[in-house]
Amino acid sequence: MPLRITENIHNWLFSVMPEGVASLVEMTLIAVVYLTIFAVAGLFLVLLERRVAAWFQLRIGPNRVGPQGLLQTMADAIKLLTKELTGTEKADKFLYNLAPYFVIISALMALAVIPFSAEFHAFDINIGIFFLIAISSIGVIGILLGGWSSNNKYALIGAMRSGVQTISYELSVGLSLLTMVVITGSLQLSEIIEVQKSGWLILQGHIPAAIAFMVFMISGTAETNRAPFDMVEAESELGAGFHTEYSGMKFAYFFLAEFINMFIISAIAATVFFGGWLSPFGITESIPELGVFWFLLKTMALVFLMMWFRWTFPRLRVDQLLTLEWKYLLPINLVNLVLMALLVWLNLTLRL
Amino acid sequence: MSYFSDIYKGIKTLLTGMSVTGKYFVTSRKGAITQQYPDNRDTLQMFERFRGEVIMPHTDDNEHRCTGCQKCEIACPNGTIEIIWDRGIDEATGKKKKKIDQFVYHLSMCTMCGLCIDVCPHDAIKWGQNFENSVYDRSTLTRVLNKPGSTLMQGVED
Questions:
Q1: Interchain contact, A58 vs B7, CB within 8 Å
Q2: Does the beta-carbon distance from B28 to A313 stay under 8 Å?
Q3: What is the value of ipTM here, to two decimals?
């Protein structure tokens, strides 16, 4: 069905307009759809985080606005829209206003590459994984710009910590994904899912894949600047970190982008390790429409795992953070990569 | 070799921590400590040691245990308690005796330190559970704790 609808719109657009205009309109429509997903998913994830956090802390959480508090984050977003946009004196106005867009645009671009289902995949390039890693590094520029241009010492310290953290953990994210690429032999995300029709990669690659998954989840959590790696906005030390001076909707952009980044990291993990939109053991192979459901189920399970981390572990110190990356994750990752290469070379991977 | 045992210990302790919070997550529905206050106003029970306000319990015969010794007034660091006292004839012995006329309690000045309750030799005053103390006129926060016409309970001073 989804394919039919998009096909119909496509044909209709090309029948009423000249080709160049029609493709432009089509791109705009897709962008609007993805922006909607961005906003809705962001708001929903914020609500989920608050509910989950409440349950971890034996509280109830937001339950007043709408049934079970479902409209709480909508109300918050409307409140943020009506708030005044403040700024500091002597702030670099241009960069200060530019920074939130860097963050959300990089998150949106990463969202475009993610395969929600076999058909629901906006941009299936042959360097998908590489593109994702590259794009997720651009987000940190927004954070650095925001922190620096705010003309506030807390914001600056937060931004610099973010730089240190993201640059370090980028390596682990990249290497753990590279470990899986050794099995798939392709960087294209649709191809990676195709390979998993004979068993999810975490089963195919067994021990090294499990290690790669753990490393990916740890470094992914660090890359999204979430607790226990939230040095960037360590509330008890830095006020609100790099977005101390932002208010209203500009703050909301940072906030939404943080949650979308969490969604993206979980989506990558679900795609690369758990078969993306494939159903477990192919139980619903005959109904391809359920692909989105399976994909979201797996992603949400991993999002929950990240929330579980957040509400369990205490924040790391900067030196502990760097020790974890450079002395533990990176060497383990390198050894793991060699192990996986050996496994593939000796044909020891498990296939159904 | 401590490198590998460190990794093992690290992962093990992290999983222990996650299992603890996981248990709380699963059981949170039953053990939620949040009070949905205005909704459960009728059933809300404050905990035993809650310090809401100072009260003076009276029996059914309108008797209290305050002898008017003024120890609480002396103990109070910010003048919250004022005891207006009088001398009356004790019926049993026929002697002149001190008794309270009005036990004035200024809730607006009270910091809930509890020194008056600690110092009271006859347990005449106690902590009350009421916490809905907002009023439109602050003069209503000055209260007389002993009820009109109340008398000292027999045998408190023995």
A1: no
A2: no
A3: 0.78
